[in-house]
Design brief:
Elements (H helix, E strand, L loop, with lengths): L1 H27 L11 H15 L6 E2 L2 E2 L8 H13 L3 H27 L1 H12 L2 H5 L9 H17 L5 H17 L4 H14 L7 H26 L2 H16 L11 H25 L2 H9 L2 H20 L12 H18 L2 H26 L6 H7 L11 E5 L9 H11 L2 E2 L3 H7 L3 E6 L4 H7 L3 E5 L3 E5 L3
Parallel strand pairs: 3-4, 3-5
Antiparallel strand pairs: 1-2, 5-7, 6-7
Helix pairs in contact: 1-4, 1-5, 2-3, 2-18, 3-4, 4-5, 4-7, 4-15, 5-15, 7-8, 7-9, 7-14, 8-9, 8-10, 9-14, 12-15, 14-15, 15-16, 17-18
Length: about 475
């Protein structure tokens, strides 16, 4: 047994490194090749680009007007800006820090579980999160949204909270994590504050805190937010904050907005959709422990504070988002790290104490599930869905003399309306300002390009107006006037 332990200790860093390499591949492979999504990702990308161009890193804009729809503080925009500076004005720059945040979250889970529960639990937890499809490919690691950074800060904050049982200084790290999470995704960070409060209450940790501890915790949680708020107030007074409170908190919580419907069990259904096989393993583990009187009661009695924290980490986001009327599937992303921790811990305990048959069954199940999800991830990575209108805009990326031209849109079958991903692609790849008004305004303006979708009469339109075709593909044309 001692020799087996020594061998496992030797192979642990090799296996862990292999898992992290797989995670890196899953997150970064062809990251720049996937088309930009037209909703949150594009909106964030536009705001970050315009912040950088205008030199104002506090006020977010969309098409150079103050954005009172995407009511988020600026930290996620700053991450996008840093990505642009490091990787360029392209999809990779847009997504770079989302990808890095996801990678750091996986590493955090690996280290945390190793320190708390040992090598085997660390490997299983890492494997679970590395093959979690929603965490990787749904509005998170591989997109330029705020969610991946938010999940990383959420994870770091709650892990710090769980460590404060041994050293109260970690509590301040948890408070700072909350503040940074708020500056990333606004009211969503309220989950962290509630977990901190309930953890301190249920575990009795609040009894250990003196006046200095409370003051320092409050400073860590509130001061960064107040500092940003004070600076933001200088630009448009209370307007942003009123919208942020009324729309982003009250309306999202009390009414269904933007068609985001869902019942009370919506988020459990989402978990089952993206995580069903891992949940099946978790359910099986709980059943086995429930039938093992010698271990289950003992397991429940150990480290109660820690177990309370882990349970709150899963339950609070599920509960609060389920109570809110607006349901969006990626809101539940913060629960995947703690679920991975729980699966790793429970599975490793069984693998260490159970009979050979149970060990083989459990290990085979873990390998089967991880291979299944990895197959889904690989299928996604190797089949990006092209968006031809975006590819058309990218075709003029290297034509320097067209940089900074105004870009207009003409659609033959519907009113011309700029999709958000077209706005961002135009800004990133051509430094163009998209404008409304279609062909009529295009004809009036110098240094202008027209994006024409193919349709009945498009070629005749080009010929009749003597437009010069700059680029084309199956979707349409980019043209300019002959004079």
């Amino acid at each position: 047994m001692h020799r087996l332990t020594l061998k496992f200790n030797f192979f642990y860093p090799i296996i862990l490194l292999s898992l992290l390499v797989i995670a890196f591949y899953n997150i970064f492979y062809r990251l720049e090749n996937f088309p930009i999504s037209s909703w949150d990702e594009a909106r964030h990308g536009v705001s970050a680009y315009e912040m950088l161009k205008r030199g104002n890193f506090i006020v977010s804009t969309y098409r150079n007007d103050i954005d009172y729809w995407n009511l988020k503080p600026p930290l996620s925009f700053w991450a996008n800006i840093a990505g642009y500076k490091l990787a360029g004005f392209n999809a990779l720059g847009l997504r770079l820090f989302s990808a890095l945040s996801a990678m750091l979250t996986i590493i955090l889970v690996a280290i945390f579980v190793y320190k708390k529960h040992g090598r085997l639990a660390s490997l299983i937890s890492t494997l679970t999160l590395t093959t979690c499809t929603q965490f990787l490919i749904n509005h998170s690691a591989r997109t330029g949204d705020a969610d991946s950074l938010f999940v990383f800060l959420f994870t770091a904050s709650i892990m710090s909270l769980l460590l404060c049982e041994h050293n109260l200084k970690w509590l301040y790290g948890s408070g700072l994590g909350f503040a940074l999470a708020f500056l990333t995704k606004s009211w969503h960070a309220g989950n962290i504050a509630i977990i901190i409060g309930l953890y301190l209450l249920f575990t009795g940790t609040y009894k250990r805190l003196n006046h200095t501890n409370w003051i320092l915790l409050l400073i860590c949680m509130v001061f960064p937010i107040l500092a940003w708020g004070g600076i933001r107030y200088q630009y448009d007074g209370l307007e942003f904050f009123k919208n942020m409170f009324a729309y982003d908190l009250l309306q999202r919580s009390s009414t269904t907005i933007e068609g985001h419907l869902g019942g009370t069990l919506y988020y459990l259904e989402i978990l089952w959709r993206f995580f069903n096989y891992w949940l099946a393993i978790l359910y099986g583990l709980v059943l086995v422990y429930a039938n093992k009187d010698f271990s289950f009661k003992q397991f429940l009695s150990e480290k109660n504070s820690y177990k309370i924290g882990i349970c709150l980490w899963v339950i609070i986001p599920l509960l609060l988002f389920s109570l809110a009327k607006t349901k969006i599937r990626w809101y539940i992303l913060p629960v995947y790290p703690p679920l991975s921790v729980i699966i790793g811990v429970l599975a490793s305990k069984l693998l260490l104490i159970e009979k050979l048959g149970t060990k083989i069954t459990l290990l085979a199940s873990i390998l089967f599930v991880s291979f299944h999800y990895e197959g889904e991830i690989q299928a996604y990575l190797n089949k990006p869905t092209p968006k031809l209108q975006l590819n058309l805009i990218q075709k003029i990326h290297d034509i320097e003399k067209l940089k900074g031209y105004s870009l207009f849109l003409h659609l033959p079958s519907s009113p011309a309306k700029w999709a958000q991903n077209m706005v961002l692609t135009s800004e990133l790849y051509t430094d163009s300002q998209v404008e409304d008004g279609g062909m009529n305004e295009f004809l009036k303006k110098d240094k202008a390009l027209l994006l024409l979708q193919k349709g009945k009469g498009t070629k005749q339109l080009i010929k009749a107006n003597q437009f010069i075709i700059i680029a084309s593909n199956k979707w349409g044309y980019i043209v300019r006037k002959s004079k």
